[in-house]
Design goal:
By secondary structure, this protein is α+β, with helices and mostly antiparallel strands. It folds into 2 domains: 33-67 and 85-183 and 486-526, no CATH class; 225-464, no CATH class. The chain is built from 14 helices and 12 strands. The chain has helices at 11-18, 33-66, 85-103, 116-151, 156-182, 196-205, 243-255, 263-293, 305-340, 403-409, 418-424, 448-453, 466-473, 488-526; strands at 184-192, 218-220, 225-232, 296-298, 351-358, 366-372, 374-375, 379-380, 388-390, 398-400, 457-464, 477-485. Strands 1-12 form a two-stranded antiparallel ribbon. It has a two-stranded antiparallel ribbon with strand order 2-4. A hairpin with a 7-residue loop joins strand 9 and strand 10 (398-400). The chain is elongated and about 145 Å long. It starts with 10 loop residues before the first helix and ends with a helix. The chain crosses the membrane at residues 40-62, 164-183, 491-517. Keywords: Membrane, Transmembrane, Transmembrane helix.
Amino acid sequence: MVEDWSVQQSYDEYFRQCSPISCIYLKTIRPNFLEVLKTIIGLLGGLCTILLIVIPLIVGFIRQTFWPMPHTDVIPSPPPPRISLMKRLTQQILPKFKQILFELNLFKIETNDNNAEREVRYQQIITRVYIVSLITSGTRLSVRAIKIWFFAAQNNEERLKTHVTAILLIITFSTLGLIYILSSVSVTNQISNPSSKTYENLLIQHSNTLQCPCSRMSIKYKSFMNLSVLNRHQVCSSDFIKDKWIETLLLPNLQSTYSPTEFQTSAIGFFQLLASFCQFTEQYLTDELSALTNKSLIHSQVVSPLQLNIQIQSIIKQFQVDTSNSFLNILELIRVMITDNTLISLFQSNWKWTDLIFVDTSHWGKILHTKPVVYNGTCNCGLSSQCLQEISAMPGLNVGCYPLEALLKSNLQCLYNHSCIRLIQSIDQSFTPLNASLTSKYKLNSSVQSILNELMVEEWISNVSYEDYYNVCSPSFCSYSYMIRRSFLDILSVLLGLYGGLVIITTTLVTILVHIWQQRHTRVQTF
């Protein structure tokens, strides 16, 4: 029979529950000038190295194939001279050095298969090829540069080219090389199926970059959290909410007639309401706690124990506030319904019955007249339902138009005192008063309203198991990044490539610039 549904969505609340730790996005950008320059120079250096190695081999192959050299007899060499002490030492050290070079492996990778020996041999061959390539590249380019700079400089123009090229090469190579050497490189490492202990160790070392995606993003609170009420107000476990106490208050009311302003008139309603509040708040909390633990925590990434604890404590505090407010809204609704409908209290605490008046019984029947009860001599229940009067002999207890309003404004101070309890009941029976020495967050004179604001709870207890949370989250891997200095081989290979490329670029650039300068200089001299 619903006419229309009202739906409210709160993205802020969703985002708060999601609680992302970090955001990652991809952005396509053009490489900067330094990256482009480094790549081009390295490419030129590598191409030059390859061509310097390959072209002589190709030329040699062609010459041997199409223009073979004539055969010459080999003249036997004379017997070797006597070996000196230095040569003997060299002959002893050289084999060890050759053995070290022979076993050198710069690309060592651990393997457990049956071809381990073959793999090691293959890695050693790659190492030798790599070293030979680097030495060949650097040596050939250096020799070529020296020939160009110093031995080919036969005139002033060549000398100018040599000097400018050398200066430009030194400055450029030193600057770019220093930048590359001092720069760090980011390394990303990944660990599969990490345990919670491994995660905590990684968190200590790489807290800023550690990321561990959860296998399950939705995790129910009950799988790792337990929240319950440890203690409630002691009145909820006392004699004053039990049937035996209520019965002792009922018998005198049946045998005697009390004034509406006397506490004994509405005492039964007072303690019945108190017992009802104890029962209702207990059941209400049980239902709300069950609803809370069946809710889910949304996490895309594993959070640290500290972050999880902070988040759960925030959720618990919010739950306590929301639960209390919800209960108080229900209580307020009941109070408004009673007062706005001007209901007559069973105990005649707001309206008192008067004599019957007979008026034309065939049409109207009997009419029962009432008159409002007045408290403190001035407050009329016919005009206000909030009238109250304190019982001087029973400190903290009030009477009023409605027992509910009187209860909420009263405190339980009287129930801590034997003498005060004897004033409430007229039958001589022993009931244990409340214990004033027990630790409580409520004061002895705290109103029942203030106790209900806290749902009559003395202490909450919560238990959060990070181990259970981590097991349910169950990250399949963790990745982290860290900055390291570039390796020696990386620096060496890049610098050699950079050097080779700079030799070509600076030589070509200086040649063009000097040629342009010579043309302008010649033109000026002509004029």
